[in-house]
Structures are given as structure tokens and as C-alpha cells.
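Case study 2.
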Amino acid sequence: MSGSVLVVDDDVGMCELLETDLRLRGYEAASSTSAASALQYLNMHSVDVVVSDVRMPGTSGLELCAQVAASHPGLPVIVMTAFGSMETAVAALRAGAYDFITKPLEMDLLTVSLDRAIAHQRLQQQVRRLTETVDHASHFGEILGNSPAMLAIYQQLAQIAPANSSVLLTGESGTGKELVARWIHRRGPRNTGPFVAVNCAALPEPLLESELFGHAKGAFTDARVERKGLFLQADGGTLFLDEVGELPLSMQVKLLRVLEQRTVRPVGGDREIPINVRLLSATNRDLEEALEANQFREDLFYRINVIQVELPPLRARGSDVLTIAQHFLQEFANLMSKPIGGIRPEAAERLLAYNWPGNVRELRNVMERAVALARTDRIDIADLPDKVRQFRKGRVLIDGDDPLELVRLEELERRYIQHVLDVAGGNRSQAARILGLDRKTLYRKLREVEPD
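Prediction:
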């Protein structure tokens, strides 16, 4: 990791040696021969980390640690000394040192410590910027994030919203498909009309038909009055069909007829009623796979999928995790009347490392729990669930030179295919695109590697 380092040592030769070696390793390096000159340098230059000797005439390295902590909060200081002892190490850490290393220096060990310190310092800076980032969220409202994946989505949404075309929102559960649907409606030509949403998986087929198309009085036992369906309730606006991939085939036929004729006939009714709605749909299923399995009608698929927007999973959005976490932190801190303002860097590291199978919905749950349990003014590691604190990414490849640890090429392929499937959230069409395979080839390989 490149970064800028200030070396502080009263030994001019040591300063020159470290400067030269650090530059060869890709760092920007400067040096000072006293604590006073080091503080002057820090007041005029931006530095990622300070490396200081302990024993220096005048102000010692330990005193310099305390002064840096006071004047440049968050700037890590690595202390080095030829007189290594537990007492010196403890004193250095108490003075605010980030790490402790003994002379004679091993440059590889120093490099490891420097890289950790620089990464920690940059994460601290990012955490400090979170509140400002959330407070000045983009014009995409509750859809937060500035990762490359989300910037591409914003550009696509800005082009989609003004049209009247049907849109299919795909992606894993919890990625915010309904938020996106509401944004499209608010920025579209029908924003003065109603936005009506229904979860197609939440209702049994007979009730879903009545919900969508309405029913006439006396159409069935409990139909005591005529009822307008959701298509008519959304007339002049937008109808959002969530989990559209869960529609039974018989309902798919009826929905297709409505979309083709732009009319609905209520259950038990005897006339067709014109409708004027924009249809937005969402699914976490792989509909192309469902087509091949004859579980979804091809003609309906092309009706609802004029434009497709695939929302990325949270694990593919980098530091957006922290931006969204800060948003939820502020929300729950206000609800619970707790003076919590931020997230400690150590906790932020664990949030970034976790793979978030439940996406934004899971992150919201984790932050609500963290705010409820927090005992200080910032979220700490102890406030996070065990699964987040203890998460470790699985490895696809095997390191090592022991022949007994190596695997057959078929096993390596199996592991990599499974890894890509996990990253794609089980979406085989997306996994096939990542792997550069057509779906049929991927399905064949899956049959070959999956256990009987």
C-alpha cells in the first residue's frame, strides 16, 4: 500500500537509510531529526503515518506520540527502539502509539506495520466523513451509495424514469427493489398518479386474482360489495408487482391478457374496463432459468422485461456498506434517543469484511441491534452480532507447496464455480455471464460437479 511516511530519529544516517528503503518500496518518505522539527513538518504537510525512535534528546518519541495525538488526531505513530521491553511497549501504547517495533529493524515487518497503519488511518478518515456523506445524500433520495456499481445504476435510472416502458428490477432479496421502483415513479411522467404495490408471493392465487383485477358484487361468497382491483386503483399511475416470479402459471396467463389488451375484467364481471398504468416488476428469481424450466411464460417475460435493471448485492458495493450503516445508525439513534454519532474503525472493518447475504435489509437489522446495545457514543465491535465479528472469507484457491494439499483440476473448477454462484447469490444466469459460459454449459457443469 503506497502512502506518505515521516521518519523521526536523531540519527541522521538512520533517517537517510529508512528514507531510501521506503522510497524503493513505493512510499513517499521524509525525515526529521527531532520531535520539534517533526511537529513543524506535520503542520505544513499531509502524512499518512509517523515512524519515530523512542530515545531522542529533548522531546522523546513517547512524548511525541502524545503531542501528535493531541494536535493530529487519528494520525498513527509507529514507535521503534533498540531497547525493546514490555514496559516500553506499554508506555508507547498508552502514549497513543499505533504499533511498536524493535531495532535492528526488519523492513518486511515494518512494511506490514506501515500498511496496516495507513489502511487504519484511511478508514478512520472515511468513518469521519460518513455523517457528512449521509447528510448530503444524492438526489436519489433513500437510495444511498457512491460505489461504481451504484453510479452506473443511477445513470440507468435517470434514463429510464421519463419513459413509460415496463421495467423489471432483478437482484437478491433485500437489495432495495421497491425503493428503486418508487424512485422511478416519482421521477416519471405519472408522478401525480398513485403508486400501488403488491407482493405476488404473499397472496394465494384466488385472492391475488381478486386483488389485481377486482371483483363484482356476488362473485363469490364473501363478495358483498363490488371492489376495484389494484390495476384500477393504480390507473393513471404505477403498479409495482413485487416477486413477480412467484406467480403461478394460470395467473401469468391472465396477467399477460391484461397487459396485451390494456383492459381488466373483474372476477365475476361481465365487461372489460380500460386501464392506463405503467408496470414495474421485481424478482429475486432467475427468470431466464425459470423460462427453461417452463415455470415462467416467455411471452409474459418479454412483456414485463422491456427494460431490466439488475441491482447489485451489498457485498459488491464496497464502502457503500458504511454509508448505509451510518444512515441506519442516525435513524435508530434518533428513535431510541441515544447520543450515538458514529462507528469505530475496528467495527467498520468488520462491517466491510462481512458478505451480507441478507443485503441492505440485514444491515438495517444489524445496525438497529448495535444502536440498542451500544454503551458509548460510537458503535464498537462488541455491539455487532457474532456472525459479523467472526466472519472470515472462504478461499477458492489453495496456497502451499505440499503435494498432499493440492487438488485435481476438476475439484478446483468445482470450487470456483461454487464461489461464483455464491457471489451471484445463486443467480445462474449472472454466474454464467461472469464465467463466460452459456447457461446450458453452466447447467451441464453443475450437474457434473453436484453430488447425487
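The longest strand covers residues 278-283.
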